[in-house]
């Protein structure tokens, strides 16, 4: 996991966001600018 993502994850972890959901959201955001353009 890149350090910048780790930093964001440390922020959202107390809200009960699971790592799997977090990664899937990041992946979807990246996909919007990549594959699905």
How far apart lie the N and C ends? 24 Å
The total domain count is 1
Q: Which outline best applies?
A: globular
The count of β-strands is 0
Q: Report the C-alpha radius of gyration, rounded.
A: 11 Å
Q: In terms of structural class, how would the helical and strand content be classed?
A: mainly alpha
Count every helix, treating DSSP H or I runs of 4 or more residues as helices: 2
Mean pLDDT: 74
Q: Give the strand content.
A: under 5%
Q: What portion of residues is helical?
A: 55-70%
Major beta sheet summary: none
Q: Low-confidence spans: pLDDT under 50, at least 5 residues? A: none
Question: Care to describe what's here?
Answer:
This protein has helices at residues 3-12, 19-33. The protein contains two helices and no strands. The relative contact order is 0.12. With 37 residues, the protein is mainly alpha-helical. The chain has one domain.
Quick rundown:
The protein is mainly alpha-helical and 37 residues long.
Main attributes of the structure:
37 residues, 2 helices, 0% strand, single chain, mainly alpha
Secondary-structure blueprint:
Layout: H1 3-12, H2 19-33
């Amino acid at each position: 996991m890149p350090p910048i993502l780790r930093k964001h994850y440390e922020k959202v972890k107390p809200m009960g966001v699971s790592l799997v959901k977090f990664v899937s959201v990041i992946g979807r955001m990246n996909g919007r600018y990549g594959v699905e353009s």
